[in-house]
Specification:
Blueprint (H helix, E strand, L loop, with lengths): L2 H29 L3 H12 L6 H8 L3 H13 L3 E5 L7 E5 L8 H15 L4 H23 L2
Antiparallel strand pairs: 1-2
Length: about 150
Amino acid sequence: MEPEVLERFTLYMREQSALTVMFHARVAEKMGLSATDEKCLDLAMRAEGPVTAGRIAELSGLSTGAVTGVIDRLERAGYVRRVRDPHDRRKVLVEVTPGDLEKFGAIFEVARQSMIEVLDQFSETELDVIDRYLKLQIETFRKRVIDT
């Protein structure tokens, strides 16, 4: 790979990362959470049903002790609750509570519309390449950076 190509993509990724962090910091502030708490809530929301603290730790790359603190704060803020696993009463699951989450939908809708505006600029063939790139980037980053 040409050094200038790597430098260009490094700058793009750094800028995208900074914008994403700032966006989630803004969302978290409006929700009364830290950015880490908001992203862990997002992970719990994307799970199919209640999830264990261990699974949140695994997905987030945080220690189980740190996740316990996150869950405590999310529970106090009313975004999640701890429930017993119906299949194994010794296990505790984290369940997202609907609560006030709907009022934050507008913030995410603006971001969604921004993405649609950009994606509309590409052909199906180009979208396939972007799709492949992003999937590989996520998989590789998770494996080499988060799961280490």
